[in-house]
Specification:
Elements (H helix, E strand, L loop, with lengths): L21 H21 L1 H16 L4 E5 L1 H18 L6 E5 L19 H6 L9 E5 L6 H12 L3 E6 L5 H5 L2 E4 L14 H20 L16 H15 L3 H11 L2 H7 L11
Parallel strand pairs: 1-2, 1-3, 3-4, 4-5
Length: 279
């Protein structure tokens, strides 16, 4: 796939950015960002098909790995790192792996994304099994590091998906599920940290949140398994227990701290039945 064939590398719709006033720049970026949600909406059937298969694997003990380089890798690590505190899951259930290792989270690591074999080698650290899932993230759809791991993972029976911002890419061809969010040229030509990165963040949020809901980590619409790592979360959990059990704040807080999560409290105590309405 030639550089000129990539939508993510096509010239911006805006010229002479350096001559724009600040307000014009901001409004123009926002105008382009409006395109992202529509592009993600078009990809929902592909996301849904992938999530259904991923759920089945995870119910059998499978884990999910996000693999990417640069911005794509950082977004994968970000989404994975937010799941344990939000949903109370083990840190190894969803893992983000970035080309160049943790150093690449803050600094560019030269040529880290250019090695076709390194992604699969990095994954071996986690001893992958056939129940596991690998999501390759690359706006261009041509990153060797990501293509290599997706090809190897699929050949070894792992479920694979690709998140790209270009259609019909080598990465998409290599995966079981191609999730293509075609957001168009970036405001700054080729800067895929912008619309493409926003689309990736949205898709990863959708995938992980949908899976956590489906796998029982949410009750009603609440994060009943969240880790109580700060005062805000203790207060949030206390209010959940208070409302659900119909008890005072102090009693609810004591129960929460004793059992460690809202889910554990509710598994030991019956919720208050809804009030009957008389007519």
């Amino acid at each position: 796939m030639k550089l000129t064939d990539k939508i993510t590398e096509q010239p911006s719709h805006y010229s002479h950015l350096e001559q724009m006033e600040a307000g014009e720049i901001l409004r123009s970026i926002n105008r382009e960002d409006h395109r992202v949600a529509d592009a993600v909406e078009h990809a929902i059937p592909s996301i849904e098909a992938f999530v259904k298969e991923a759920e089945a694997r995870m119910r059998k003990g499978g884990r999910m790995f996000y693999m990417g380089a640069g911005t794509s890798g950082r977004l994968g690590v970000l989404d994975a790192s937010e799941l344990p505190p939000t949903f109370g899951v083990d840190a190894g259930w969803v893992t983000g792996v970035i080309a160049g290792g943790d150093t690449a989270l803050r600094n560019a690591v030269e040529h880290a994304e250019d090695n076709t074999e390194q992604g699969w080698a990095d994954l071996q650290t986690f001893h992958p099994t056939a129940n596991d899932i690998v999501v390759g993230i690359a706006a261009s759809g041509t990153t060797p590091y990501v293509i290599g791991v997706i090809r190897q993972a699929r050949a070894n029976g792992l479920l694979t998906a690709a998140i790209t911002s270009n259609p019909h890419t080598p990465l998409a061809d290599a995966a079981d599920h191609a999730i293509e969010t075609i957001v168009g040229p970036e405001f700054v030509t080729g800067s895929s940290r912008m619309k493409s990165g926003t689309a990736q963040k949205m898709v990863l949020n959708m995938i992980s949140t949908c899976l956590m809901v489906r796998l029982g980590r949410v009750k009603g619409n609440r994060m009943v398994n969240m880790q109580l790592t700060n005062a805000k979360l203790v207060d949030r959990g206390t209010r959940m227990v208070q409302e659900t059990l119909g008890i005072g704040y102090e009693e609810a807080e004591a129960l929460l701290l004793r059992h460690g999560s809202v889910q554990e409290v509710l598994s030991h105590y019956s919720p208050v039945p809804p009030m009957r309405r008389y007519t």
